[in-house]
Amino acid sequence: MSTSPTPVLELQNVAWSKRGHTIVHGTSLALPACGSVAIIGPNGAGKSTLLSLMAGLHKPVAGQVLLGGTTMQSQPIATRAKTIGFMPQRFAPHWDITVEELLAMRLKAACLHTQLAPQAVLELHGMAAFAHARWSSLSGGEQARVLLCTVLATQPPVLLADEPGAALDVRYRLELVQALAQRGRSHLVVVVMHDLDLAFEFFDRIIVMNQGRIVLDGDRSLAMSPLLDQHFGVRFERINVPPQVLLKAHLQQPAMAVPSFESDVPYAD
Ligand SMILES: Nc1ncnc2c1ncn2[C@@H]1O[C@H](COP(=O)(O)OP(=O)(O)OP(=O)(O)O)[C@@H](O)[C@H]1O
């Protein structure tokens, strides 16, 4: 990771709550201009909320988010759109537009529509065949790939992605994670993800969230920390596959009862 004196993105004691319920407790974090960061943690830990705060999509109830040393809220939307590429966990356009139209809208939002043609961007990302496809006609994995392509189209210095690989098959997920980690060598890339092995294999920095707080923050050696088991509520078996340690999770308590379907359900012949 770079040791840039001014972080490109900084959270200073940022908190967020909804209807009196605190979802992210006072959190401070400094992210340099370069590096790949994975945010992991159990369901409901506050990972997506933290990412939305970083993207300026949620206004903190306390503290502040700085983008390039200036408060996020004081920066024009166009500046934010140019600086931050945000890939949400779920996305559905208001109208069933085509991939090309979606891309044109993204380029326009970042004021880059005069410089880049949507078709050229799609070709660059190997997605030209989808140009005229309507959003609703795409599979979940295709939607994720198109979305990432629209986000990367503007070459944002900061890329924030919320579970971008969730709907992808094993090959595309690996390609995507590798591409994001590679991008982290020259830009800031922050990815919320559930695949711990991919996070520890490819990312420079791993941030673990639990109950609205950052509870661990370090490099891939965190895979060995017994605190990881505690925060995920499982026992991890560590399988040494040099240079990596793979994590195989075991339930600490008897597994949840699953209804049995054998017995008395009559099958019609
Ligand atoms: N707009 C909201 N209104 C009320 N509660 C919310 C809102 N957004 C998030 N929450 C709650 O805050 C908690 C954290 O949500 P968040 O989506 O940030 O978790 P997460 O770590 O990303 O979870 P997951 O891994 O399941 O995606 C959850 O309990 C969620 O229900």
TrEMBL record:
Highest taxon of the lineage: Bacteria
SMART domains to which the protein is assigned, alphabetical: AAA
Presence of the UniProt keyword Translocase in the record: no
Location of the ABC transporter domain: 9-236
Coiled coil: none
InterPro entries listed in its UniProt record: AAA+_ATPase, ABC_transporter-like_ATP-bd, ABC_transporter-like_CS, P-loop_NTPase
CDD domains: ABC_Iron-Siderophores_B12_Hemin
Keyword terms: ATP-binding, Cell membrane, Membrane, Nucleotide-binding
GO MF terms held by the record: ATP binding; ATP hydrolysis activity
Keyword Transport in annotation: no
Protein name per UniProt: ABC transporter ATP-binding protein
